[in-house]
Amino acid sequence: xxxxxxxxxxxxxxxxxxxxxxxxxxxxxxxxxxxxxxxxxxxxxxxxxxxxxxxxxxxxxxxxxxxxxxxxxxxxxxxxxxxxxxxxxxxxxxxxxxxxxxxxxxxxxxxxxxxxxxxxxxxxxxxxxxxxxxxxxxxxxxxxxxxxxxxxxxxxxxxxxxxxxxxxxxxxxxxxxxxxxxxxxxxxxxxxxxxxxxxxxxxxxxxxxxxxxxxxxxxxxxxxxxxxxxxxxxxxxxxxxxxxxxxxxxxxxxxxxxxxxxxxxxxxxxxxxxxxxxxxxxxxxxxxxxxxxxxxxxxxxxxxxxxxxxxxxxxxxxxxxxxxxxxxxxxxxxxxxxxxxxxxxxxxxxxxxxxxxxxxxxxxxxxxxxxxxxxxxxxxxxxxxxxxxxxxxxxxxxxxxxxxxxxxxxxxxxxxxxxxxxxxxxxxxxx
Length: 431
What we know:
With about 425 residues, the chain is mainly β. It has one helix at about 1-15; strands spanning about 30-35, 40, 45-50, 60-65, 70-80, 80-85, 90, 95-100, 100-110, 115-125, 130-140, 145-150, 155, 160-170, 175-185, 190-195, 200, 205-210, 215, 220-225, 230-240, 245-255, 260-265, 265-270, 275-280, 290-300, 305-310, 315-320, 325, 330-335, 335-345, 350-360, 365-375, 395, 405, 410, 415-420, 425.
């Protein structure tokens, strides 16, 4: 009896000293797993994992609350198929699904850059929220492709092939199917080619590559251009997707150089006058090395109405000049120089001189040219009586009786001139 009593007392003491203990339930949890880099336009996969704990088996739906202003779409994986969210929850709408330890796959596509916070919550059918979690997505714009042009296209000699390269750098658009467009004013371009496996080919369109496009990668392509006139040529290179979307643009200025030519002056002259002028050529520094040229002159005006000479520096004297090709037969090096010329006109009229430097091979390529005009008229003749306005001499008389003042002006013209044979011939005014 005493033993039973002691046992009862012990139980009572335990109950009094240690109140009845209860164990709190462990709720479900949610966790996002998201890639660190999120690019606009790309479908980014992420997961949301649930740990049911003491909420296991409860019928639930998982809700996603997010501002979709910057989002193109949100999808979930059902079986092996991506399905787009039509509502803001995941699971059968009426019955839900039994909560367990589940990891579900999702993906989101951003249409613009920015920070977007997505909240997920587990909610019992009936509205009781069991767990929440959130994640802030930071979407950034994709890094656009780049174009690089190399080859000193700012120093192009006319009539000479200039090779250059165009490099495509895909960045975040690797393997995107594209075409690269080459837009330029080709007025002063005589040849533009690109190189492929079959060799050099004319770029007859404004793009290169097959019409169906090619996968964008880190590629360097070879080109060459030939210009025929000095000046700037603006060039625009563009990478476009097959739907016409522009991914990258590179503007570059090709600069074409040519020597310059200057004829000092033309002017008004009388028959018998000697017109002196010079033709100067200025070659751009460090360009046109090894180029051989010939001079070419084209004169329009009265036939056989002049004689021409040039001053040969090597011989230090005037030499006859033919206005066709002049200079050594095999040409001479293109360089900076100046040459003096003189022309005596024997017929009145307008004369135009077009001077050129052309290639020494066949003369079809013009490197420099200039044009000058001469207007030739007859000399004024005096009446057949002595002048009354001269200052009194001294005078000179030629064999025909023509009288000239001290400045050489004809002040009296004889009616005719006797030749030694006794026949009279028209007076030519020759002294």
